[in-house]
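U., I forgot to send this yesterday:
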Amino acid sequence: MNTKEKDVWMIWAHIEGMARFLSQDNWKFYHIDDAEANRKRVMLIGTAILTTIDHLVDAELFGPNSAIQNVGFIIGLFLEFVVAYEETCESIEDGWRFVVVRKLDEFDIKIRGLKLAERIAEGLREIALEEEAMDQAAEEEQQETENPSHNPNPQNDKNDIPPSTSLPSFVNAYKPESAADSELRSWDTWDWEQEVRIYTVWHGIDGKIEGNQYDLTLAKNYESDDESMSSDDASDVSAR
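Result:
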C-alpha cells in the first residue's frame, strides 16, 4: 500500500467516525442554537463526503468490489442524518444528498443493512427524475415559444404541455458558497479547502474552527431561567 492509498484510508476513517457520531448522538448537533452555522455545517459534511468519494474513485476504492466494504452503509448513515436534521431546521444546504445517491448508482454501490436509508435514496431518485422531467418540459416549452413554426395553432394544445418550472435539475439547484448567502448553491462542483476557509472566516474564532461558545456549562454561555426571570423582573420594576 503506497502513501497516497494510506492517506485515502485515513480520510475514510475520519468519514466513518463522523458518520457514527452523527447517527448516534444527533441531539448534540440539533440543539445548537445557531441555525445559520448549522446550515453551513451540513454543507461542510456534504462537501467532505463528496471530496472523499473523489479520492476513493481516484484510488479505485469506490465500487461494488472495493476493499472498503462499508461505503454504502456509511453513506447511508449520512443520508439518515441529513433527512432527520431537515425536520428541525429549514434552509440547510443539503443538495449534496442527491449527488451522493447519483454517485452510488453510477458506481453500482448498494446501501445494505439500513432500510430507512434505502427508502431515502429511492425517494431522492424519484425527486431527481421528477425535476429532470420538469426541466425537459420547460425546455421544450421554451423551444416551442421561440420556434412555433412547426405548430400551426399552438394555443390548441398549450394545456397538453406540462407547466414550466423555475426549479433547475437537482445537480444545479444550488450556487457555490462563494456566492451571496441569499443565493442558491450548485452541487456540480465542490471545493473542500475553499469551503473550510470561508466557513472559518464567518463562523470561526480567531481564524480557527474551535472554541467553547456552545458549551452551556460555562457561565458566559449560560443564563438560567431564574437569572432571566430576575432580569425581567428588574426591568419591569424600573419601568414602573
